[in-house]
Amino acid sequence: MRSLIDFDQMTLEEWGELYDLAKDIMDNPKKYADSCKDKLVATLFYEPSTRTQFSFQAAALKLGAKVIGFSGTAGSSVSKGENLKDTIRIVAAYSDLIVMRNPSEGAAYAASLYSRVPIINAGDGGHLHPTQTLTDLTTLTALKGGAGGHTVGFCGDLKNGRTVHSLIKALVRFPGNSFVLISTPALRIPDYVKKVLEDSGASYREENSLEACIGDLDVLYMTRIQKERFESEEAYKKEAGVYILDAKKLAMAKQSLIVLHPLPKVDEITDEADEDPRCRYFDQAEFGMYIRMALLLTLLKEGKEASQPAWPRSNTDKSCGNPRCITKTEGYLPKLEDNGRCVYCDHALI
Ligand code: NCD
Fold first, then answer.
1. What's the pLDDT score for residue 248?
2. What is the pTM assigned to this prediction?
3. How far is ligand 1, taken at its centre, from the CA of residue 262, in Å?
C-alpha cells in the first residue's frame, strides 16, 4: 500500500496489523519516539481543519519526523493559480509523505497520480475521509471489542458528511453490522453509498426520528450539519437544529451504547448529554492520533519513488456528473471510469 485514498484499498488483515501497531504505540510510546527522525511530512490543508491537521502533525512529531505545510491556501502558490499537479510535484520533491485535505471530490486520488511520495487523503470535499474511518474503527475495536456485530445509527447530515460515507463503506466489510440512517429527506446518504449498502447485503433502514430508534442502537454516530457545503444560508437554516441529542433521548438508549462524533460538534449534543459517560468522542479523537502514527510509520517505511510515476491515459470520453469533482477544475486530468463510475469521486459518468 503506498497512498491511502480510501479504506477500500486496505485488506482487513492489513487493518488488523495497523490496529496492533497503534495499540503497541499507545502502550509503549517511547519506543517510537525517534522512529521517523530522518523523515519530513507535508500537510497540505486547502480547507480548514483543527483536529485532523493537528492530529497528523502531532502524530508525525511524536514519531520524531519534521513537518511542513499550509492551512488555507492564502499564503501558498495555490492562491497565484498553481494547479494541483504542480503543487504536488514540488512538495513531493521536498518531503517523504503528503497529507492532503481539499474541497474537491477525488482530489487526493488525483494528487496520487503525480506524486513520488505516499498521499494520505485527509478529506476530499464531501466524498471520503479514510483516516477518520481508521479513527472510528480503532475506537470501536478498543471500546467495543471489534468493528463488527453492531447496530450503528448515523444521525445528521448524511448527504455531505464524508466521515459517514467512508465509515459505512468500511463497516459493511465487517460481519454482523446493521445500519439505521437517521436524517431529514433532504440530507439522506448519496446513491453511491446506498448502493454499497445494497450490494453488501447488510440490513439497513432510513429513519426521520432519532427518538424512534435510539433504543435499538449499539453505536450512535452523530454528525454536524455541514454548513459550508450548502448552496445558501436559507438552505442551511432549514436543516439546522433538527437533531439534538439530549439527556432525555439518552435515557431511552442502551447502557452499553457508545456515542461517537468526528467533531467539531456545533449544537447537535447538549451540554448535559455531553457529560454522559456513553459519549466517547474525546477518546475517539485521541485514538485518531495513535492510528495516524501507525499509518505514518507504515507508509514512511516504503520510501520515495526515484522518478515521477507514469500517469494513466483516459479510458473514457464521458465526463463526471458531479459538479464538485476535481476533474471539473483540473482540466489536464485523464478521464477515468470504472463500471460507469468516475474513478476520482465515485459518481456516475454522463
Ligand atoms: C470531520 C470532517 O472534516 O469531515 N471532522 C474531522 O475530520 N474530524 C467532520 C466535520 O467537519 O463535520
1. 98
2. 0.95
3. 6
